[in-house]
Amino acid sequence: MIFICDVMLGKLARFLRMLGLDAPYIRQGENPGFPPEEGVPFLFFTKTTAKTGRPGAILVRSIDPQEQILEIREYIAPYINSAAVMTRCIECNVLLAEVRKEDIEPFVPEYIYHHHNEFRTCPSCRKVYWEGSHADDMNMMITKVIGDG
Ligand SMILES: [Zn+2]
Question: 46 CA distance to ligand 1 centroid (A)?
């Protein structure tokens, strides 16, 4: 399932990626992969009432990203898998690659390097992730989406 986020839902797209979901973001004037390849199931979250006639469209009313997560919770909850959390770059929506610890030493703070053993990196922007990066945001979201359900 692909969760396409329309313009004005960039923060929501980042939250979904944090949860490991495939969440492309449509910037103003761009239309990358919309609709996706034939046969690929998708939902299209938008803040624009005029676009609600499109296939898969779901209108998001709140302007607060944390409330937006709640609004769409029923749609994303079945796709959340705790093993998929932190498998995707929050900036690029690209799947992260495993990386050897030695290889990323120059790119992470010394404290982080010494206190973590598993690191992943984004093949697109080279950002380095480790267990615990974004943990606070992630825990907040997981609690919101599945925690009390
Ligand atoms: Zn990236």
Answer: 23
Beta bridge partners of 25: 5
- 148 vs 54 pLDDT, higher one: 54
Q: How far is the CA of 123 from the centre of ligand 1 (A)?
A: 7
Look up the pTM and report it: 0.86
Tell me whether residue 89 is exposed, middle or buried, using C-beta atoms within 10 angstroms of its C-beta: 0 to 12, 13 to 18, 19 or more. buried
What's the CA gap between 101 and 85, in Å, rounded?
20
Distance 93 CA to ligand 1 centre (A): 7
pLDDT in tens, 72-98: 999 999 998 877 877 999 999 999 999
Q: Is the preceding peptide bond at 35 cis, omega within 30 degrees of 0?
A: yes
Question: Which is nearest to 95 in space by CA: 85, 103, 104?
Answer: 85
Q: How far is the CA of 50 from the centre of ligand 1 (A)?
A: 31
- Distance from the alpha carbon of residue 128 to the mean position of ligand 1, in angstroms: 9
